[in-house]
């Protein structure tokens, strides 16, 4: 009996000493209970929105359009346009018109892309779209005026629309994104592939951030990283405003990192910049847990994401960030569940720019652009007149057309990539040529001066050294310049001929390098007569063959030749221009006729009313008596 009692006592002691089953129940009684309870409450109150009929965005649309439910007068629209709070657009007969001036052409193009996708279903209207970073209509402004902005806070009346960065015009980050973030549809696929390569168990458990100092709210995380690098890896990178290490908190700027490489980490941070962050929608797709700092700034898709359900909310001053990081590290399964919910939500209901634009502009109170054009001159401001627009895009068919296109600047006044490559190669060749000719000449001139000046008398050793150095410098400049201009001209001619042949024939071939070498060699030896011309051509062709073979092999190894990439870019650009042309084709000359015909439709009704009014007038007594006599 005593043995049985002892065994029971031992069993109870064993149960008491055993650790609890791992999971949420373990943490419910621990110091993490506050966070666990917040997650549970958020999940209980969370109702996933339906992706049908754009219902995820209904609340955003209704709230933003509420101040304008009573309508928008022509006077109000004229005031918005005159204040230059954004870019003036008009939609007339399913065609899109825009004022000539746009502060950021690529941003306007990004917005127009999605409008043009749904323009066939939109009524005639007029609107002002702000492509700056900051909202334009504070709530203290009375009455509220209609301006579309991509981001805002609760202190503004701006109407939110999808940012241009879903297509193009995002922030340029040199050298990884020299033309800016864009093409959400393509970028999305890259991020999903990276996420598949880095499942949760393989991800680095260090919190990660790379970005420029567009807001001082990011400073505490950078300082925490320097204090505890195992917990957080956060550094500042350069941007266009960077001037010194003061802009990166006293340390050299870190290298920029591709967004696809962020997917290697479990915990990623999203901060506001000047306004809402452009990176937020990209971080969704990494399969990582996102720490979203602050809740002041919004984009159109933010309301469908809920704190503790899809991301970890962090105070703006980051006072709780260290505790939150320790919490997710101690509760890895909870962190993974939140990350997976975010990924599932964005995969099932990704931000849909064109759908949102259609649903937002459909009920937008209209001021018909045709009425503004037809109104008398006193009521029409200059900015409301329809400007002329893009000419029909021309797809270069012949080789001469493609060559001519090389020297045409784009909308942002940038030269073609081919010419930029030629300029860069020429500068590099000049520097290399100067070093090749100047450094040996410097050494030789110094040695020769020393040998020839043995009998000279100098005031002191410094005088002798300075004299030798001056002689060496003269040699460096003289022979460096001779080699520099020769190599610059040689490389420029070679690249110009090769690029011209590639563009003219619309393909990359080894024969182009051979011909370019022959032409360059011949021109360099033309001063020696016919024999020199032929010899130079042969030598140039022999040099062009291995150079061309090496360059083509490197391009093939990279998976895509330069010419193939340029053809793809050119084709995509032409398709985009043609698509825009279909919707924006100019019909300004026909507009007066259309307005007149629309006015004439109502003419019979007006005439009938006038006739009825005349019949109801009191008759002339004299005429009445006369009719009675007859």
List keywords for this structure.
about 625 residues; alpha/beta; Rossmann fold; 5-stranded parallel β-sheet; 3-stranded antiparallel β-sheet; disordered C terminus; TIMMDC1; transmembrane; transferase
Shape: globular
Residue share in helices? 40-55%
List the total number of helices.
22
CATH level-four homologous superfamily name of the domain at 184-350 = Glycogen Phosphorylase B
- C-alpha-based Rg, rounded: 36 Å
CATH class of the domain at 184-350: Alpha Beta
Sheet having the most strands:
5 strands, parallel
DSSP strand tally:
10
User: What is the CATH topology descriptor of the domain at 184-350?
Assistant: Rossmann fold
Molecular structure report:
It is a single chain. It is built from 22 helices and ten strands. It is an alpha/beta fold and 630 residues long. Among the domains are: 55-162 and 357-361, no CATH class; 184-350, Glycogen Phosphorylase B (Rossmann fold); 399-508 and 561-568, no CATH class. α8 (219-227) links the parallel β6 (204-211) and β7. The longest helix has 45 residues, at 461-505.
Question: How is the secondary structure organized here?
Answer:
Blueprint: H1 2-17, H2 24-28, H3 33-45, H4 58-65, H5 74-82, E1 87-92, E2 95-98, H6 105-118, E3 125-129, E4 148-149, E5 159-160, H7 184-197, E6 204-211, H8 219-227, E7 232-236, E8 265-270, H9 280-283, E9 289-293, E10 312-314, H10 321-330, H11 332-348, H12 353-361, H13 369-374, H14 399-406, H15 417-452, H16 461-505, H17 510-524, H18 529-558, H19 562-584, H20 591-601, H21 603-615, H22 621-629
Parallel strand pairs: 4-5, 6-7, 6-8, 8-9, 9-10
Antiparallel strand pairs: 1-2, 1-3
């Amino acid at each position: 009996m005593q043995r049985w009692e002892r065994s029971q006592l031992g069993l109870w002691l064993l149960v008491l000493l055993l650790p609890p089953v791992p999971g949420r129940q373990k943490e419910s009684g621990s110091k993490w209970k506050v966070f666990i309870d917040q997650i549970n409450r958020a999940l209980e109150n969370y109702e996933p929105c339906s992706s049908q009929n754009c219902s995820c965005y209904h609340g955003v649309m209704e709230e933003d359009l509420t101040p304008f439910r009573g309508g928008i007068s022509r006077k109000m629209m004229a005031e918005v346009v005159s204040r230059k709070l954004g870019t003036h657009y008009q939609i007339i007969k399913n065609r899109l018109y825009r004022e000539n001036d746009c502060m950021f052409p690529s941003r306007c193009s990004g917005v127009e892309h999605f409008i043009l996708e749904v323009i066939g279903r939109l009524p005639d209207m007029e609107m002002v779209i702000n492509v700056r970073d900051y909202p334009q209509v504070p709530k203290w402004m009375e009455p509220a005026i209609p301006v579309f902005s991509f981001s805002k806070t609760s202190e503004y009346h701006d109407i939110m629309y999808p940012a241009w960065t879903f297509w193009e015009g995002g922030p340029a980050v040199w050298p990884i994104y020299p033309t800016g973030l864009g093409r959400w549809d393509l970028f999305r696929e890259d991020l999903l592939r990276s996420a598949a390569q880095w499942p949760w168990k393989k991800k680095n458990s260090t919190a990660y951030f790379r970005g420029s100092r567009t807001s001082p709210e990011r400073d505490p995380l950078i300082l925490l990283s320097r204090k505890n690098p195992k917990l957080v890896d956060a550094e500042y990178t350069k941007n266009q405003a960077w001037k010194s290490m003061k802009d990166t908190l006293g340390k050299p700027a870190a290298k920029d990192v591709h967004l696809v490489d962020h997917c290697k980490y479990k915990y990623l941070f999203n901060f506001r910049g000047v306004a809402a962050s452009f990176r937020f929608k990209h971080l969704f797709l990494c399969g990582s847990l996102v720490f979203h700092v602050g809740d002041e700034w919004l984009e159109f898709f933010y309301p469908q994401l809920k704190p503790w359900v899809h991301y970890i909310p962090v105070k703006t001053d980051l006072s709780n960030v260290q505790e939150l990081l320790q919490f997710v590290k101690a509760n890895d399964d909870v962190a993974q569940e939140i990350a997976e919910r975010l990924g599932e939500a964005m995969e099932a209901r990704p931000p849909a720019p064109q759908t949102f634009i259609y649903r937002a502009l459909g009920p937008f109170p209209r001021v018909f652009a045709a009425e503004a054009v037809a109104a008398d001159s006193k009521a029409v401001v200059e900015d409301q007149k329809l400007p002329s627009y893009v000419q029909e895009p021309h797809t270069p068919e012949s080789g001469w057309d493609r060559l001519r296109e090389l020297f045409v600047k784009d909308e942002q006044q940038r030269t073609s990539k081919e010419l930029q490559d030629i300029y860069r190669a020429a500068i590099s060749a000049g520097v290399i040529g100067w070093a090749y000719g100047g450094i040996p000449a410097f050494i030789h001139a110094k040695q020769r001066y020393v040998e020839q000046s043995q009998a000279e008398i100098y005031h002191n050793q410094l005088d002798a050294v300075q004299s030798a150095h001056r002689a060496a410098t003269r040699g460096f400049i003289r022979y460096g310049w001779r080699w520099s201009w020769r190599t610059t001209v040689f490389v420029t001619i070679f690249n110009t001929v090769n690029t011209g042949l590639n563009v003219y024939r619309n393909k990359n071939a080894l024969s182009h390098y051979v011909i370019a070498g022959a032409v360059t060699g011949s021109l360099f030896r033309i001063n020696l007569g016919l024999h020199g011309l032929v010899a130079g051509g042969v030598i140039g062709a022999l040099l062009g063959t291995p150079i061309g073979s090496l360059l083509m092999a490197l391009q093939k190894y990279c998976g895509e030749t330069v010419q193939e990439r340029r053809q793809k870019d050119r084709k995509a650009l032409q398709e985009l221009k043609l698509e825009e042309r279909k919707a924006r084709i100019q019909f300004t000359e026909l507009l007066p006729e259309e307005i007149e015909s629309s006015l004439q439709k109502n003419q019979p009704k007006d005439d009938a009313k006038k006739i009825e009014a005349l019949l109801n007038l009191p008759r002339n007594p004299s005429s009445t008596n006369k009719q009675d006599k007859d």
